[in-house]
Amino acid sequence: MRALLRQTLLISTILAAPVAGAADPSTLSLVLKPGMADTAGHVPHVDVELVLQGSQAKEGAALFRLPTVASNVVTVADDIQDLTVNDSRGPLPVSSRDEPEQGLTAYRIWHAARDVQGPVTVRYRAPVTNAPLVRGAAPPFNLRSETGGFSAAGNAFLILPADDGQHYDLSLRWDLSAQPAGAVGLSSLGIGDATLSDQPAERLSDAYYMAGTVGTYGRSDGYFGGWQGTPPFDAGGLLAWGDKLHGFYSRFFGDSTPGAYGVFMRPNPVNPGGGVEMTNSFALTFDDKTDLDDLKLTLAHEMLHTWVNSLDEPKGLLSSWFGEGLAVFYQRALPYRAGMIDADQFLADLNYHAGRYYTNALAGTPNDDIPRQFWADTRVRVLPYDRGSMYFASVDHEVRSRSGGERSLDDLVQEMLTRRKAGHPLTRGDWEALVRRELGEKGVAAFTAMLGGALVLPASDAFGAEFRRTTRKLRRYELGFAPTALTSSPRIVSGLIPGSAADKAGLRDGDEIMKPVGQDGLQGRQDGWLVLDVRRGGERMEIRYQPRGETVDAWQWERVPGR
Predict the structure, then answer these.
(1) Structural domains of the chain sorted by starting position, each given as residue range(s) with its CATH number in brackets
(2) Contact criterion met (CB below 8 Å) for 384 and 391
(3) pLDDT tens-digit profile of 206-219?
(4) In the chain, pLDDT over 90 holds for what percent of residues?
């Protein structure tokens, strides 16, 4: 992190409850047919067909579902067109009900108006509007198109069975008959059509999809990638760099059969440079100013999640310090060891995260408060990444020091992963037990303090003898008005701070911000500018300012002369 609507569609999906007591998985097949691009290269829609074999359900049963909101992204639930549901008896009437939002995710559930007999086929059309994200910062799940290609995460447009505990034999087929010669379809399942045995339907929801006139790299049975739009860098070269790093990761984690891994790249006009990890894949975004070195480390970060994910308990954002903190720590450490970035690139990434952390006015936010504020305030959203990475750097240094260099953070992480491979869920208690064994009660106290919000400061040589800690005068990130204004609809400015950069630039309480703005990456750039498209009364204006407040002494690292 550098960084969900109500109508009808032509997609076919089978979403009835499986036959009770069936011994073998039911069959769930998905066909995706992107529409013909217009003269501007915009793919207007995707027709979807999902068919479920071996289904049977009673009147009133919950048949299928689609998120209305997925991780702060508004899906196509309200915009789908021409929705039809059929079973072996013909048209199947359905009714829908929206569940309340929980944790920035909510579902629309469709129920059968009569008894169901399979197979069940659902068809609908998902429009691709390129509408801006209306709820502020969010992953690139939404349907998007340019230069003859489209992409989206499955959770943004796929209606799937409501019984998410059932397993199916899954198949994906691309219908590219409306596309020009050379068009291709790819997903987290691989390049082209794909099949999977004995998988939950959510495997399709957790996949990324891209098709049309798009660039491709690699092979379906290994590392592969695709991109839409026109990147300002060599997309194939970046994917080749990632291919090499993927091989290094596989060897580092002792994975002799890593399997397929996909990278999907597309433009993001609001918050470029970030992305989201999906199952065995990663979606990456860019704009015309995106820095290639930043993207390499973002790719290094997200690809690491294939091997190092979050804890199983506690679930969700309460454990983001673990998965995201490790990913930030290793996103520079492992490419540096592999000789794929140099010392200056390593240092630039380290100081980016250190600068963002040590100038963060909310750096003391306890871990227990992060889920509630995560999407509401960018300063809280980046804490698991920045604070977590500094914590793991401290642990690494302490373990190396106490063991005389014989052990390191690597050993603890490998031990955790070995436990997961053996089928044991990973918990916070497992990590605490490892810390107690390696570092004693002092280490446990430091861990508890970190979770409580205490500032984490690694030793001067924590990142190697060639680097040393220093301080620099840096300015805190200060939006200048209530952050909740950017996540509300409409986005109305309130809580303007008198004398702030926003105030001096001319922003006023009551102004309406017309377009979403990205902040996560901006926090780490001391010289970055925030550009707001503002409406005041009947007047539209652009307000630009550097969102910075007080100057503080912030910890940074530098090269040791002669090293």
Answers:
(1) 4-213 (2.60.40.3650), 217-307 (1.10.390.10), 316-459 (1.10.390), 479-546 (2.30.42.10)
(2) no
(3) 999 999 999 999 87
(4) 75
